[in-house]
């Protein structure tokens, strides 16, 4: 779920969302986000899962202190989007880079010969100049992916596709994101859980006609804060038995982490990965890639 220190992959986010969505003790989910973005692969599927879960339970996103690019895509799928006064958001665009190391290698006396079958097999290789036709193809893909990005944000937020495209991948700070329609509310990050808890309580009160006691609210916020330290996807819980449910949740998280670590190490250490360590690493980072599938690819 967390293959690198301080970072959570799309697969980890999805796993935690599914866990929280199926937990009857969870009233809502807060995504505490601090990300400049991520890979295209997996981002759109993850955003769709967030949108799916928000139809089951409220899913809020907090830009603390950044949710740009793929981070903005995920935040857009949430029920409500919070930003801090210095949060950086937006950057609704895509990019890729091509490097040509041919001249540098030649100076070192290294000559690369690519042996291949299929005229497009080595398009974009890093050992030669990028031909104009290949560049045009890659640019077309970037434009198509950006439009797909804009369409998703539009569907999630209600902004028009053109309005999203007109941002030209600009980055917004704090209140600017609200003015641009990419966020809903400015908060202090330390107040985010309380703001969400109060909103959920008010919603419950409207639906049931009842009111929660101040004591219950205090207990709930405390339980939620404890859960936040463990999961990174902060569920708002309720009731006297919330703390009693923690060991079961922790056990589930531990099991999920162990399973993910086992998957990653299984790919990296399989016999087929010997001599192909770089490709094995890429496969291990791919959400949903099983050890069996990776072995077949590496064979």
TrEMBL record:
Keywords, in A-Z order: Hydrolase, Protease, Serine protease
SUPFAM superfamilies in alphabetical order: ClpP/crotonase
Boundaries of every Peptidase S49 domain copy: 53-200
Disordered: region residues: 206-226
GO biological process, one term: proteolysis
Pfam families linked: Peptidase_S49
Biased composition (Low complexity): 216-226
GO molecular function, one term: serine-type peptidase activity
InterPro entries attached to this UniProt entry: ClpP/crotonase-like_dom_sf, Peptidase_S49, Protein_C
Family of this protein: Belongs to the peptidase S49 family.
Protein name: S49 family peptidase
């Amino acid at each position: 779920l967390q293959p690198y220190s301080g970072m959570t992959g799309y697969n980890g986010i999805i796993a935690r969302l599914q866990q929280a969505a199926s937990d009857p003790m969870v009233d809502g989910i807060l995504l505490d986000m601090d990300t400049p973005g991520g890979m295209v692969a997996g981002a759109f599927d993850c955003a769709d899962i967030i949108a799916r879960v928000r139809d089951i339970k409220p899913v809020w996103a907090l830009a603390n202190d950044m949710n740009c690019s793929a981070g903005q895509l995920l935040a857009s799928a949430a029920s409500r989007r919070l930003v801090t006064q210095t949060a950086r958001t937006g950057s609704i665009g895509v990019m890729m880079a091509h490097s040509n190391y041919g001249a540098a290698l030649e100076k070192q006396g290294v000559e690369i010969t690519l042996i291949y079958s299929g005229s497009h097999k080595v398009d974009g290789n890093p050992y030669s100049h990028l031909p104009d036709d290949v560049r045009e193809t890659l640019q077309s893909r970037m434009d198509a992916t950006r439009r797909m990005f804009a369409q998703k944000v539009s569907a999630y937020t209600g902004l028009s596709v053109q309005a999203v495209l007109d941002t030209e991948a600009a980055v917004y700070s704090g209140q600017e994101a609200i003015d641009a329609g990419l966020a809903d509310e400015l908060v202090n990050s330390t107040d985010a859980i309380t703001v969400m808890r109060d909103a959920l309580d008010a919603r419950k009160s409207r639906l049931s006609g009842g009111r929660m006691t101040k004591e219950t609210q205090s207990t709930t916020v405390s339980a939620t804060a404890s859960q936040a330290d463990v999961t990174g996807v902060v569920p708002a819980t309720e009731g006297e038995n919330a703390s009693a449910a923690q060991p079961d949740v922790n056990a589930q998280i531990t099991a999920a982490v162990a399973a993910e670590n086992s998957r990653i190490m299984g790919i990296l250490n399989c016999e087929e990965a010997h001599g192909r360590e770089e490709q094995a690493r890429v496969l291990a980072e791919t959400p949903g890639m099983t050890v069996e599938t990776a072995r077949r690819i590496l064979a």
